[in-house]
Write a structure and sequence with these properties.
CATH topology of the largest domain: Glutamine Phosphoribosylpyrophosphate, subunit 1, domain 1
CATH superfamily of the largest domain: Aminohydrolase, N-terminal nucleophile (Ntn) domain
Distance between the termini: 34 Å
Number of domains: 2
CATH architecture of the largest domain: 4-Layer Sandwich
Order of helices and strands: EHEEHEEEHHEEEEEEEEEEH
Shape: globular
Radius of gyration: 25 Å
Number of helices: 5
Amino acid sequence: MCIAIVNQPNSYLTKKQLKNAWDNNNHGAGIAYVDNGKVMTYHEGYNFDDFFEEYEFIRELTDTPILIHFRIATHGKGKDMLHPHSVTEGRVSLIHNGVISGLGDHKVSDTREFAQILAKFYPDNVDFIDHAGIRAMALTILGKSNKVAFLDWRGEVRILNDQLGHYDADGNWFSNDSYKRVNDYVWAGSKKVYKTGAAAKPVAQPTFWDSERKVAIPKAPKYTDFLDDFDDEPSYKWNSHQHELRSEYLRGTLDEDGIW
């Protein structure tokens, strides 16, 4: 899934927040920041403590916003594909959260290809994305779920689809909440994959309220009225992991036919 963060000056993210983001998006991290009128980038693929040490140094160094990204790789492998990506070297960089349909392959990430498309406009600063035509084109490519943040050499920031993320009290922007806690799953594109040893949490059997008897009655499965034709009353068993109520009688019948 990744997480993209815009960290405001004079606002220090905690080590716990960044460690959560690293653990949930553990294919590497990067930072874009301004130093002496140039956008600089830092990438760390392996060691969180090294990353955090560099974050503290950069946060002290610059008085402008910085971009932070933690990656889950969906296209393009290796440290070269870590965000931030340059749109114009030393002038404009970007970070991205999501999966851009139609871009990227096993060598080049979707984000790198998106940055290459925007590079054809030779932007000197983030104002280029305010142009109505360029913005419309970029949003069309991104679709309704992708989020992108830009930083330029002046320390100016732009965010596309910022409403899909959230801001904290200090004005820091987060593309999702994977910095809040360590999850028992990771995102592979739009698919949730549970970590080794983790399992989906059981879900309670749904019920409905019987107002006459004043009790909660387990819901029967849909489309099972035909079972009433049998002499034996069917028994149902709730599968808490598959979130469904199954007929034990029906299961036995279908087992015999080899189709359950």
